[in-house]
Amino acid sequence: MKQDLFSANEFEQLVICKDEVSGLKAIICIHNTLLGPAVGGTRIYPYRTMDDAIEDVTCLARAMTYKTAMAGLSFGGGKAVIMADPATQKTTELLMAYGRFIDTLGGRFITGEDVGANEYDMLVIRRETPYVVGLPESHGGGGNTSPPTAYGILCGIKAAVNHRLKVESLRGLRVSIQGVGNVGSHLARHLAQEGVTLLVTDVNMDRARQVAKEVGATLVSPGEVYDLEVDVFSPCGLGKVITDETIPRLRCQVVAGAANNQLADEERHGRMLKEKGITYVVDYIINAGGVINGTDEAMGYSRPRAYSQVERIYDNVKALLETADAEGTTTVEAAYRIAGNRMKAIQRVSPITVGYKAPFKVFPGAR
Asked: In whole angstroms, what is the distance from residue 17 CA to residue 10 CA?
């Protein structure tokens, strides 16, 4: 177990969940509850080892803390992973067992969908605990988080392009999307409507080919996406794609996408991008649309209200880039400072909110 990773980032709680009957093996990580109960999606993925799962969940939980802070939400950061293949091992019994573990935390952790999970899985988990968001709209929830996430990415790209290229419209710009799954495909549709020249790729080339045909994009191979001369490179697949090897190959002016943890090394690669003259939009700021939409369920979901708040990502990205320019820092440093200042402004005796109850409306059919 990576104890150094756990202690270095000052996590509040790490919960190992195991249920022999259902075969559940899961980890819930609560990073910080200074602003409110921790919120974060549940990722279902067949991790090779427990160390791999812990490294992923802790990195993601930490990013959630800063994501909610930058989005202006009264929630802290957390994340959960279930060590299973979602195609073959995700069962009703497993999800219900997982829901019981969430319930034991008494509202300190609220979950939603992530990779390998969907809104209908959230309904199953909701049988055992009320601390779930991202339910289908037919059950009073905000539904699939991919559309609001993609809409937020669009808003953020517009802000970054306005700041960097000094243009109001995306029309005629060249944008490459790496990963056209749930979020990436929605983003491709938005950008096509904006008149962007699109280039798309995915590790699943059949999926990429289908999306390219639908939106009129050019299909490129996964290996060549870093070498394309584009205005915006949008990573929307797996994380840690910005590395020592890929940065020298980039021929873009802006990096702005939905993938979590895009930089393999935040400090070094944030600095390398700045030195190369590439504007990097920090992932946890631009991809906050899903969590904004999901946490709106706390007040009884309203789509207009939720999407209005998602549109604030434009202003958040502008503020980030202006701050970084004014201070001569990387956007990574500027983002942590802005979010940290918001958390410091919250006056509480302790960041540990044991027994905190989220102000959730319990919808019909829950529990």
From this structure: 21
Q: What is the pLDDT of residues 184-243, one digit of tens each?
A: 999 999 999 999 999 999 999 999 999 999 999 999 999 999 999 999 999 999 889 999
- Rounded CA gap, 100 and 117, in Å? 17
Q: How many CB atoms lie within 10 A of CB 276?
A: 12
Which listed residue (25, 67, 79, 158) is catalytic?
79
How is residue 214 written in tokens?
């639908």
On whether the CB atoms of residues 183 and 189 are closer than 8 A, the answer is no
User: At 209, which amino acid appears?
Assistant: R
Q: Is residue 79 flagged as an active site residue?
A: yes
- Residue 86, token pair as written in the block: 């979602």
- Alpha helices in the chain, H assignment, sequence order: 3-8, 50-70, 92-103, 119-126, 146-165, 182-193, 205-215, 266-275, 283-286, 289-295, 303-310, 313-327, 331-345
H or E element: which one contains 79? strand 76-83
The confidence score (pLDDT) of residue 299 equals: 81
The CA-based angle 308-164-230, given to 5 degrees, is 100
- Sign of the CA dihedral with 120 first, then 124, 126, and 131 last: negative
Q: In Å, how far from its chain's centre is CA 341? A: 21
Round the CA-based radius of gyration of the chain to a whole number and report it.
Answer: 20
**From the DSSP assignment, how many helices (H) and strands (E) are in the chain?**
13, 11
pLDDT of res. 366:
37
